[in-house]
Specification:
four-stranded antiparallel β-sheet, alpha+beta, Alpha-Beta Plaits, elongated, two-stranded antiparallel ribbon
Length: about 220
């Protein structure tokens, strides 16, 4: 079968369906204030479906043509698009989920282009539900975490501080601060607000602590 054997109506339905699936995925990302929104995902899914139609039916009259080549090149091309979204900010890597979602939108568009409508729509719905549910779970976990920077006047006091808070400490990093002081950056995982306030009060009253401040995510 070549491209002329497939009716214009069917081709149009496939690429429009792919675009709709992209809109579904993009809407979920846009609601979460992510860089890739409705337009990005719609275009990615739409273009992927178009490429699949071309690869599947456009070169059917060529005996030496491998239709899987274009499909594999879609995956490679989307990888370059995804790298533009990934950002390293201080110790954090941002945009990985966005890049992965764009990659998945391309796969959904490919499924729609191949005529696998149910697969495309189910994948879109599962992707939106999965990313939103996991986002809520992660947000709930982050709300219980706080990062601090503490300066102590001795390494012994610093080691004691680490030992006392080992069970609640998600991570820590120790640095030399000046000639006599030591600095620690740490992230604490608190059960509730009262536990956090009690811990902060104890740190403030510790005679070995010369400075103490809360670290915002951009620090």
């Amino acid at each position: 079968m070549n491209l002329t054997d497939l009716s214009t109506g069917v081709m149009l339905i496939r690429i429009v369906f792919a675009g709709i699936c992209g809109i579904i995925v993009g809407y979920g990302r846009q609601r979460s204030n992510k860089p890739s929104g409705i337009k990005t995902h719609m275009v990615v899914a739409f273009a992927s479906a178009l490429f699949i139609l071309i690869s599947k039916y456009g070169f059917a009259d060529s005996q030496n043509f491998d239709p899987t080549r274009i499909a594999s090149q879609i995956v490679s091309g989307i990888s370059f698009l995804g790298t533009g979204i990934i950002i390293k900010r201080h110790a954090n890597i941002e945009g990985l989920t966005d890049a992965a979602t764009i990659w998945c939108s391309a796969a959904i568009g490919m499924a729609a282009g191949a005529g696998l409508y149910w697969l495309a729509i189910l994948a879109s719905i599962l992707l939106v539900i999965g990313t939103n549910v996991l986002h809520l779970l992660e947000k709930n976990h982050r709300d219980r975490q706080d990062s601090y920077m503490i300066t102590c006047d001795s390494i012994d006091a610093l080691n004691q501080l680490i030992q006392e808070n080992q069970s609640s400490m998600s991570w820590h990093r120790v640095e030399k601060h000046g000639k006599k002081e030591y600095l620690i950056r740490l992230q604490m995982d608190f059960e509730n607000k009262d536990v956090r306030e009690k811990w902060e009060t104890e740190i403030f009253s510790n005679p070995s602590v010369s400075s103490f401040r809360f670290l915002y995510p951009t620090d």
